[in-house]
Amino acid sequence: MMPSIDQLVEQRIRASQERGDFDNLPGQGKPLQLDDDSAVPAELRAGYRLLKNAGFLPPELEMLQNVRDAEALLQHLEDGNERVKQLQKISALKMQLARHGHRLSHLVDEARYREKLLEKIS
User: Fold this and answer.
1) Residues 83, 8: Cα–Cα separation, whole Å
2) Largest CA-CA distance found in the chain, in angstroms, rounded
3) Which residues of the chain have pLDDT under 70?
4) Beta-strand (E) ranges in the chain?
5) What's the predicted TM-score (pTM) here?
6) 95, HSE (Cβ side, Cα atoms, 13 Å)
């Protein structure tokens, strides 16, 4: 009887482990950096991941990344005017996402979030 593809793969992985092919790889012993794809419907995640690995992001995920980048930049701005401009940019990006039918799950209470940001500006 011929071994199945799963058995062949397992045999090759074991042989590689025994030869030490997986020793001293970059990042060994460090946690994996998994992407947060919670905003993507479960049935689309595999397709989106394929696109991303090929260097393409769906527009919604690109917008979500832009929001995250803008929020990260906001934390480092000290000038009040620049912070207000960044808040306006974040607001515009979130409106674009809303038009595409997406909601940022970590910003459920936007009024409270806005108040906290304005407190930081003051």
Assistant:
1) 57
2) 74
3) 1-2, 34, 39, 57-58, 101-118, 120-122
4) none
5) 0.41
6) 6
